[in-house]
Structures are given as C-alpha cells and as structure tokens.
C-alpha cells in the first residue's frame, strides 16, 4: 500500500523562521487546536510543517465513531482508519460506487490534462495553460461532495475543477481551442472557465481575485436565506487557490469577512509548495497556512492532499459546517503538481528527488491500491473506466476540432449585458441598433 | 460667492440654501422617454413656454428673449412644476437616498455594502436610516477592505443579487481597481455572456474644500478605459435620483460619480416616479453661439460664467454630458452642428481625462462641423494642494471659462 505517511528528507529540516518553536519535538502534538479557533494555548498545533501528515497525528488512536465528540480528530481518525486493516466493509471510508465515482473523476482530470499538453504542443491551444496533474485528489475530494447548486471558484488552474463540477469535457476542450462551442464561447480561454449551469464562477487569471467573488457567492447564499427567506438556501461555495495566494491581501481580507459574517464558504488551499519558481518556504514567514485560520476565527485544517479519501473526509466536515451555518473553514491541502507551473515553464528549479517522492504518492494509484486491498473493485472495472475516459477525451478533442471558430459578429456581443451601454450614436439611434453592430464591423 | 442676477430683468430665483453652488436654478431637461415607461416629457424652454412631448430642445429662439431669461426664474419653475404635481424639495444626498430607498423597496435583491453605510448612515448620509429599515445584512457595514468587498459585491451580483457598493470616497476605490477592472468590467465577456453583473459602484469624488490631494481625486479618468462598464456623473438632485434608479435597474455594471461639494444642493423634484436615461446627456441651457460640454460640479461654474457671457452678448449652449462612458454623441453632435464651436469644461486632469476622450470623439465624428479647434479646460496636472489659493488655481474657474468663450468666438 502506498504509504501516505512517508516523510521526505527534504522537509525534515526545522524551519528557521518558525517562532513557535516550543513544540518542535514531535511527541507533543495537539491537533485539537486545528479545529478550535478559540483555543489559545501556544503549544497547540505547533508541530513543524514537514509536508507529511505523520507529524500531525495524535498518538492516541481514536476510532472513527468518536469523531464527532471532538471535532479535532477528523484528520487524526482518517489516518488511523487507513492504517488499520478494516474488519468489515462498514469501516471503509467509501462504498464501491463512491470509489468508482472518485476514480473516474480523477482519471478524467488526469487524461484531460495530458491531452491538453499534447494538443498544446501540436498547436491547437495557445497562451498560458496550467495543468493540474497530481492535484486531482483535492478537486475530486471536495467537488464530488457538492450539489449542482453549490458554487466553485478557482484560479487559472481550473480545467479539472470545471470537469469535477460537471462541465462537459467537450465544452472545456472547445474553450481551450478557442472555438465558439466552448463553455465561454471561446472568449475566456484556459484561465477563465465559467459555467452558469454548473455554478462554476471562474477561472481567474490574477491570483487572489477570485476569493472575493467566492465570498460574494457565499454572501448571496446567506442573504437568500436570511433576507429573502428562502428556506432551502444553504448553498456552499468553495474557493480554490494556491500557496502563493496565501500571502496576498485579498486572501486575508476575505478570511476576515467570511468569519465575521459566518459565510457558507470553504477556503481550500492547494499548497503545492511552488508559485512558479518561488518556493513556498522562501516566500512565507510562517509556512503553515492552516494556522492562519484560527487567527481570523475559523478552524484551520491541514490534510494530505495526495490522498483523496483523507481530503474527502475533511471536506465533508468543512462543507457540513458551512451548510449548517457555522461559518467558514480554511483547509490546507498539501499537494503537488507533477508538471511545471504552466506548459511554458521549464520547471528547472524543483528538485528531482522531491518530484519523485510525490510521484510515488500519485493520488490515482493510491486510490486504486486502497480499493483493491479492500476488495471494492477488480482490475477490469477500473480498466473499463480508463477506456471510457479515453474515449470521452478523444471525443472531446474531435468535437473541439470540428467546432467552428468564432465569427467576427461575436466580437461585440457580451461586452454588455444590456447593449444600450454602447451608447447613442451621432444619428440618434443606440449603437446596438446599428445593423453593422452584430457583424462586428461597427465602430464603438 | 453669492450670485446675484444683475442686469437681468426677470426676478432672480435662488432657492434657499447656504451653499452658493446651487444658486443656479435648473431647467427641467428634455429627456427621451424611457422604453416601456409611461412618462410624459416636459420641456421647459428658456423663454418660459412649455412644450409637451418634444424629443429635443433644439430650436431657434430669438436672441433678445435670452438676455432676460438666462436661467429659469421662479415663474418658470412654477410653470414647469405645475405641469406635473407640485413635487417636493430636497437636498441632493436626500435625492440619492430616496432613489436608493425606492429601489430597495421595489426589489428585495437590492442591497448596499460599504464602509459606514449602515449604522453611521454613510459618510455623506446618503444611506441614513436605511439600515434601521432594511436590516444589517441589506445595508452591510464592511470592514476596511475595498478590494475584497468590491469583489464580494461582484460575486453577489453574479449569483443573483443587485448590490450597490459605496466607496466612502471615490479615491478609495483605487484599492478596488483589480476587481473593478478585471472582474466588474470583464466577467460578462469572458464568461461568454453567462454571468451578468448588475452592480452599482458609487461614491463622492472630485475636488472638495482643501481636502488634500488623496481625497480630491477624479477617478473617472482612470476607469474610462475599462470595457464593459458604464459611467455616469450626477449633478443635480433631479438627475441624482434618476441616475441612481436607472443604474440600479441596469443589467450592466455602472459607476455613479457624485461630487463632495454638491451634496447640499436643493431642488424641487417630482413626486411621481421617474428615471433618467443612463446614456443621455442633459441640455442645461440651449444656445446658439458655442457648445459648452461639462459634467458634475463644473456645470455650476459654467452656468455662473454663462451669466457673465450672456451679459456680454454671447449665447452659450450648455450641455451636462452626464454619461461619461459612453458619450451621448447625438445630443453633443446636434449641438456641434448648430454652434460649430466647442468648449469642454471638466474637473479631470488635463492628461487622459474625460475631456481628452471627448475631444477625440468629437473630432472623429464632427470635424466637418467645427469652425474652430475644440478647447478643453481641465484641472492642472497637479496633486491637488491643500492651500486654498493653490487649490483654486488647480480647477477651472468661471473667469477662465468666460475668457475661453471669448477667445473661441472671435
């Protein structure tokens, strides 16, 4: 079984800037502080951030059933359960159906991104393309727990978030090819995946600028329940962003507002340790991002982002909190991107040993192993899924290839929701009434 | 600066207010009927006669009548307002509040967010009383995080609400530039039309009374290039309420520029509901000799200069462009075609301001109708100084406007 707990030599060094040095020793761990924002003990949660969840384990083995008695043990219990050989299938974290769903979603993400790389090098898509290989566990672990009405906000690394949320692969691929059948009619591109139907609110090119939008979506959910008195409005918003964003002002401003008003939002940090070429440790005074949650009055959780089951357990808790109106959660998922920052990134700065370490913890392989060992599926079922996904992705490429490129007349549509915003022309008519307007040849 | 109607035969009608800026009584402007709305158009011509249901106020008038009626007199005002109900008098900030309150009553998705808008009532009292009436969630007091709460407003607008984001001073919205430029303006387009952003961003800007450089900024020049947004500037209680309501009802993101020194203007506005068209300019004073284009506070400097000009025998046509983006090229064009001379008076900086864009637009579209180059009077390219005398020199004063008109009309 691929160990989820192998620490890397790279991260065993103590962090020179960590001032909370009192609990550097690893036998004194207290994850309870992770979930309790009001705990003020300084010894809480000060284990060094070593890129391995083993360090965050509480020594006591708490069984899964006692999880609710102390909200802190969610992270603990997961690793415990995974280490034990389950005696009966009721101890498993997932059912067979769920397992297949998770597997399919992760394989879809992986195949799609691999196909993107191929297409990019063949000159079918252009610009900045940021691939998600290696991080699938985070997207699948969280988004598969959402309903269609819940919202997802992402960054430029958003293809897989859109796919997990339900946007058809052909729509995403078309968008990447810049065709008019893309989910944004070819006007957004790789970094701007939007879907009103599936409540994917983007796709943002500047880091951090999606977080306030996510906060706004969560605000709407609360507003609908409390002002508009819609009783079933408990929609949750997930905001995905990276470690680099966690040094940005918008992040902190939104943590404050979300906690202040108890907005139904989960802040998911996909900490892949690198912001293009800037190592997280070189950019951040206190690299333990989850600790920033309690500073604002919300729980902060660290979870192994290469393990979809662990992510899913934490996600259940965080999304449940938000849905019940208990407020936001900050979840830090330690994960890794197997490729460079984007397809234009030569990726020379990262240590091959680090890459190898995480490659060995490939989330898809880990899930496969888990399912085999617990006799949930057999080889042929997974192969069938692999084949199905391959065909799906091939079909998406074909569809995108055959789709038309946008016409000139599409240029000026969608600039304004109300095209009267283009104003009144010299002849007294609204510009948008000009027949040349739709042809895209009118001068605005 | 008390204004006195000297040399004009008509009685001066100055509505009582301590602020000298509102000493110019305003004509009811002609307006297009708002599509779908049953509003009757009332046009008050400067000779005091009333025309109903005319689309524009362009028309020949005899020159001699103008001298005595450079601005509307009390008699005119009475005549105008008797065409509809008597109306009620209020100050500009109250007009904004009235518009806001009516829209919040009408649609419960309309909400306000900003610093000190709730319990404090707004730093210029535009939202006073609204938090008590609508609750703390609908009139949301935000922490001091412009970028984040503007973005929050955008996210809320994308998901079904109709927020109004108040910048305590427009200058503070520089901190929200990321959200306004990238998200507010662009998301409708980059999402392929899937998400609309019916947000209104409003606040006071402009040069005040010795507020210092950072509180005296004119952000319309910075925002004007952002595709996908509309910008309007209000200048009277009438158009403040009308533009506020129109902006809230619009599906486009609208930035409404108010001016710090105009909040205490008093005017009588109609009791019945009305909306001002977001894309139209307002004819303030029809004339024959020269077109003066202006907006916001400079309108009052222009009208003051107009009195002097009229005494000297000139007949300026004054248009408050109101819509800073897009420009109402119809009203402006008709005026240029009539007078053949254009003077732009604005409070923006010389470089890259609204006047600069307007000059380019008029040159592009109406070059054949111009008898003289367009002159643009703007503020100096200087951070607004604190000292009162220096501050006066930074912005355009009525005397400069008079000189400019005389120069252009040679």
Automatic annotation (TrEMBL), chain A:
Enzyme class: oxidoreductase
Keywords tagged on the record: Oxidoreductase, Pyruvate, Thiamine pyrophosphate
CDD domains from the UniProt entry: TPP_E1_PDC_ADC_BCADC
Domain of life: Eukaryota
Entries under InterPro entries matching the protein: DH_E1 (IPR001017), PDH_E1_Alpha_Subunit (IPR050642), Pyrv_DH_E1_asu_subgrp-y (IPR017597), THDP-binding (IPR029061)
UniProt keyword Oxidoreductase present: yes
Every Dehydrogenase E1 component domain range: 105-407
The enzyme's E.C. designation: 1.2.4.1
NCBIfam families referenced in this protein's UniProt entry, alphabetically: PDH_E1_alph_y
UniProt name for this protein: Pyruvate dehydrogenase E1 component subunit alpha
UniProt source species: Linum trigynum
Phylogenetic lineage: Eukaryota, Viridiplantae, Streptophyta, Embryophyta, Tracheophyta
UniProtKB/TrEMBL annotation, chain B:
Assigned EC number: 1.2.4.1
Cofactors (names): thiamine diphosphate
Stretches assigned to the Transketolase-like pyrimidine-binding domain: 90-265
Enzyme class: oxidoreductase
Source organism of this protein record: Linum trigynum
Location in or out of the cell: Plastid, Chloroplast
Keywords: Chloroplast, Metal-binding, Oxidoreductase, Plastid, Potassium, Pyruvate, Thiamine pyrophosphate, Transit peptide
Catalytic activity annotation: N(6)-[(R)-lipoyl]-L-lysyl-[protein] + pyruvate + H(+) = N(6)-[(R)-S(8)-acetyldihydrolipoyl]-L-lysyl-[protein] + CO2
Family annotation (InterPro entries): THDP-binding (IPR029061), Transketo_C/PFOR_II (IPR009014), Transketolase-like_Pyr-bd (IPR005475), Transketolase_C (IPR033248)
Protein name, UniProt field: pyruvate dehydrogenase (acetyl-transferring)
Molecular-function annotations in GO: metal ion binding; pyruvate dehydrogenase (acetyl-transferring) activity
CDD domains, alphabetized: TPP_PYR_E1-PDHc-beta_like (cd07036)
Biological role: The pyruvate dehydrogenase complex catalyzes the overall conversion of pyruvate to acetyl-CoA and CO(2). It contains multiple copies of three enzymatic components: pyruvate dehydrogenase (E1), dihydrolipoamide acetyltransferase (E2) and lipoamide dehydrogenase (E3).
Family annotation (Pfam families): Transket_pyr, Transketolase_C
GO CC annotation terms, alphabetical: chloroplast
Domain of life of the organism encoding this protein: Eukaryota
Subunit relationships: Tetramer of 2 alpha and 2 beta subunits.
């Amino acid at each position: 079984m691929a160990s989820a707990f192998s620490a890397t030599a790279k991260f065993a060094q103590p962090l020179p800037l960590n001032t909370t040095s009192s609990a550097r020793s690893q036998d004194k761990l207290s994850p309870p502080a992770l979930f309790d924002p009001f705990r003020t003990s300084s010894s809480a949660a000060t284990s060094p951030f070593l890129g391995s969840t083993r360090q965050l384990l509480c020594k006591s083995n708490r069984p899964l059933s006692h999880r609710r008695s102390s909200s802190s043990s969610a992270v603990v219990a997961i690793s415990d359960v995974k280490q034990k050989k389950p005696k009966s299938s009721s101890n498993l974290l997932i059912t067979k159906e769920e397992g297949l769903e998770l597997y399919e979603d992760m394989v879809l993400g992986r195949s799609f991104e691999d196909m993107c790389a191929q297409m990019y090098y063949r000159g079918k898509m252009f610009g900045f393309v940021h691939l998600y290989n290696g991080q699938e566990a985070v997207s699948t672990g969280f988004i598969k727990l959402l309903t269609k009405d819940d919202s997802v906000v992402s960054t430029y690394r958003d293809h897989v978030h859109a796919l997990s949320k339900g946007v058809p692969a052909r729509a995403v691929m078309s968008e990447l090819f810049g065709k008019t059948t893309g989910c944004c009619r070819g006007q957004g591109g790789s970094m701007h995946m939007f879907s009103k139907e599936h409540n994917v609110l983007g796709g943002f090119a500047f880091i951090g600028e999606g977080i306030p939008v996510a906060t706004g979506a969560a605000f709407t959910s609360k507003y609908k329940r409390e002002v508009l008195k819609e009783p079933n409005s408990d929609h949750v918003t997930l905001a995905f962003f990276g470690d680099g964003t966690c040094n940005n002002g918008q992040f902190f401003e939104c943590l404050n507002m979300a906690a202040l008003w108890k907005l139904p939002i989960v802040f998911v940090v996909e900490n892949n340790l690198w912001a293009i070429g800037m190592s997280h440790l070189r950019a951040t005074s206190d690299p333990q991002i989850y600790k920033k949650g309690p500073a604002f009055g919300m729980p902060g959780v660290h979870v192994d982002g290469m393990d979809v089951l662990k992510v899913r357990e934490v996600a259940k808790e965080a999304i449940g909190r938000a849905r019940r109106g208990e407020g936001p959660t900050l979840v830090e998922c330690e994960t890794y991107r197997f490729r460079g920052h984007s397809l234009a990134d030569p990726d020379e700065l990262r240590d091959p040993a680090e890459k190898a370490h995480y490659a060995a913890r490939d989330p898809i392989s880990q899930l496969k192993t888990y399912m085999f060992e617990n006799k949930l599926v057999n080889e042929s079922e997974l192969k069938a899924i692999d084949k199905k996904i391959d065909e799906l992705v091939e079909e998406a490429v074909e569809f995108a290839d055959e789709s038309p490129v946008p016409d000139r007349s599409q240029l000026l549509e969608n600039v304004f929701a109300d095209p009267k915003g283009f104003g009144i022309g010299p002849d007294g008519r609204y510009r948008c009434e000009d027949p040349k307007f739709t042809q895209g040849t009118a001068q605005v | 600066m008390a204004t006195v109607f000297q040399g004009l035969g008509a009685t001066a009608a100055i509505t009582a207010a301590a602020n000298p800026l509102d000493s110019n009584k305003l004509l009811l402007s002609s307006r297009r009927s708002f599509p779908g709305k049953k509003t009757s158009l009332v046009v008050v011509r400067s000779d005091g006669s009333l025309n109903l249901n005319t689309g524009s106020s362009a028309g020949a008038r005899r020159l001699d009548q103008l001298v005595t009626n450079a601005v509307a007199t009390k008699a005119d005002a009475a005549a105008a307002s008797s065409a509809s109900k008597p109306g009620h008098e209020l100050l500009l900030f109250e007009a904004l509040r009235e518009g806001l309150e009516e829209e919040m009553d009408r649609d419960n998705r309309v909400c306000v967010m900003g610093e000190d808008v709730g319990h404090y009532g707004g730093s210029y009292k535009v939202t006073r009383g609204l938090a008590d009436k609508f609750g703390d969630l609908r009139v949301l007091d935000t922490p001091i995080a412009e970028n984040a709460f503007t973005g929050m407003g955008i996210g809320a607008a994308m998901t079904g609400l109709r927020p109004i984001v108040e910048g305590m001073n427009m200058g503070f919205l520089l901190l929200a530039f990321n959200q306004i430029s990238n998200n507010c303006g662009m998301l409708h387009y980059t999402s392929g039309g899937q998400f609309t952003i019916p947000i209104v961003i409003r606040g006071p800007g402009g040069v005040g009374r010795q507020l210092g450089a950072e509180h005296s900024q004119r952000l319309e020049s910075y925002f004007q290039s952002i595709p996908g947004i509309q910008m309007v500037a209000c200048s009277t209680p009438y158009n403040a309420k009308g533009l506020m309501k129109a902006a809230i009802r619009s599906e486009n993101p609208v930035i409404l520029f108010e001016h710090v020194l105009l909040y205490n203007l008093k005017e009588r506005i109609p009791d019945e509901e009305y909306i001002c068209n977001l894309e139209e300019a307002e004819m303030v004073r029809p004339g024959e000799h020269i077109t003066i284009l202006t907006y916001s506070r400079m309108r009052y400097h222009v009208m003051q200069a107009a009195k002097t000009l009229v005494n000297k025998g000139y007949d300026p046509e004054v248009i408050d462009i109101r819509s800073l983006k897009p420009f109402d090229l119809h009203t402006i064009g008709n005026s240029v075609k009539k007078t053949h001379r254009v003077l732009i008076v604005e409070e923006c900086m010389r470089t890259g301001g609204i006047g600069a864009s307007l000059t380019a637009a008029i040159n592009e579209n109406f070059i054949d109708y111009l008898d003289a180059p367009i002159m643009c009077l703007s503020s100096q390219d200087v951070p607004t100084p604190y000292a009162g005398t220096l501050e006066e020199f930074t912005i355009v004063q009525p005397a400069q406007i008079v000189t400019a008109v005389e120069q252009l009309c040679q």
